[in-house]
Amino acid sequence: MKDKFLSIIKKKWLRSAILTVVLFAIIIGAYAGIIYGMSKTNISDIDFTKDKIYSISQATKDRLKNLEEDITISVYNMYEYVNDFVYKYANINDHIKIEEVDNLISKAPWKANYGVTDTSSFILIQAENKEKILYDSDLYTIDYTTYEQVDTTEEAITNAILDVITNVKPKICFLEGHNVYTKDYFQYIDSSLQSEANEIEYVNLLVNGKMPEDCKLLVITALKEDITEKERDLILEYINNGGEILLLADPNALDVKTPNFDKVLEQYGVSVSDGIVLEGDTSKMMAGAPNFIISTINRDSEIVKNINMDLNLCLINSSKLEIESYEELEKKNVTVEVLASLSDKAFYRSDLESNSLNKISSDKDATEEPIAAICTKQNGENTSKMIIFANTTFATNLTVQYSADYYKYALDMCNNKDVLLNSVSYLTEREDNITIRKNDETISTYDISEMQLRIVLGIIFAIPVFIIFIGIVIWILRRRK
User: Fold this and answer.
1) What is the pLDDT of residue 405?
2) In DSSP terms, which residues pair with 142 in a beta bridge?
3) Mean pLDDT of 247-264
4) Taking the domain 51-169, which CATH number applies?
């Protein structure tokens, strides 16, 4: 009787053990099947971050949703997160195809054209007649203020796609020869403009002897001396032929006389003050500094077209604009649209020797004075537009200390870069580029320490093992009862 009872117990235990093993195998198989299915269907990850830093930005979606040309994005030997991110582009437009390349055996032309090897890491974007390669080093930059590595994967891939489908790049010419800031101060805006499929050229008109025939936009930054009569005449001819200008001015702190350049400004009925403006409204300044002026771009302007948010400028030691009367503008066939202005508490300072941040006796009210504008001049059948900002510093990669502990590139303050890039897009007749770009500051990489790695691995492996151990102990105790 006893042997029969033990036999029954053993059979029950064996059946339970077999059932447990089968259930465990089913769970593992189902898990593996789900993982395999998800890898094949490329289901988009869910991004719970506030700024959606791991998602394709709306700006990219807007620019690629109407893409009609077939694009192939080939990925070789890149990080897993890059592979995952690239597949998000295929969800934007059916014309975008993704290819994960395992080896370069059949890719001899890539090795010949780009010098890549089996150990290289790159992304190749191909259109019908053009292609562009991005190396792993093109997908990040360094913020030399914080020395953090900043991820620019989306910006690089999106702009590479735009580059290969753009047959003609607008040429943007920066005037050289008489400027306060050298071209080194414009490296970041230069790079951003090139990333958006523009061609950049720095032009000295005295050396060239003429304006480049394919110049789509002339950029003039703050002058330390007057231009020559020859340069003045070339710029006036450019304007009369319908040329566009982006002018970044500054206060004339050195009281330099510029009669030749003034002739250029007269064409548009606008001039720039010699002094600086300061804000009296604490909500319109950065970190309590009245010379760091924050102003919102006019929501009715074309350069904020289709953008469902305010774009704020942060001008640093800015001057203000002086616009001629309506009657004078009409005589010149000019219309002026104010882009940004001061608050009703701002004031103007002509005494530049004063370091006071508060209003002094010689200061004058500058209530709602303009600091940025679009000037449109009609000359017969030709129309010339100029966007003018009463500041140059805000467009540079000058590192600025705006409080005791914080430094930042001037271009990165508020929406300075977006305002500039959208202004260029408007002046080069590429309104589809008027958008908001993802803020790279929120996309910094994170290097885990060895101790943190141990903690994470402990959580992943130790806790499940502990739970299984507790389960076994409880099972043994119950069996003994």
Assistant:
1) 74
2) 149
3) 91
4) 3.40.30.10
For tokens 């053993």, the residue is 10
What are the boundaries of each domain within the chain?
A: 1-41, 51-169, 171-429, 455-481
What is the C-alpha separation between 175 and 338, in angstroms, rounded?
A: 25
Q: Say which CATH topology domain 171-429 has.
A: Rossmann fold (3.40.50)
* Rounded Cα–Cα distance for residues 143 and 162 (Å): 25
> CA quadruple 409, 294, 374, 176: dihedral positive or negative?
negative
Structure tokens at 25: 């195998």
| pLDDT tens digits, one per residue of 392-408 | 999 999 998 866 777 88
Distance (Å, whole) CA 189 – CA 455: 42
Tell me: pLDDT of 337 over 70. Answer: yes
Q: How far apart are CA 287 and CA 327, in angstroms?
A: 41
Task: Report yes or no: 219 and 172 within 8 Å, Cβ to Cβ.
Answer: yes
CB 230 within 8 A of CB 372: no
Q: How far apart are CA 386 and CA 374, in angstroms?
A: 6
Q: How confident is the model at residue 447 (pLDDT cuts 50, 70, 90)?
A: very low
Q: Of 10-19, 309-318, 388-397, which gets the smallest average pLDDT?
A: 10-19
Strand order of the β-sheet with 289-296 is 285-286, 289-296, 312-316
The pLDDT of residue 24 = 60
CA distances from 343 to 282, 334, 367 (A): 10, 26, 6
Token pair of 88 as six digits: 């998000």
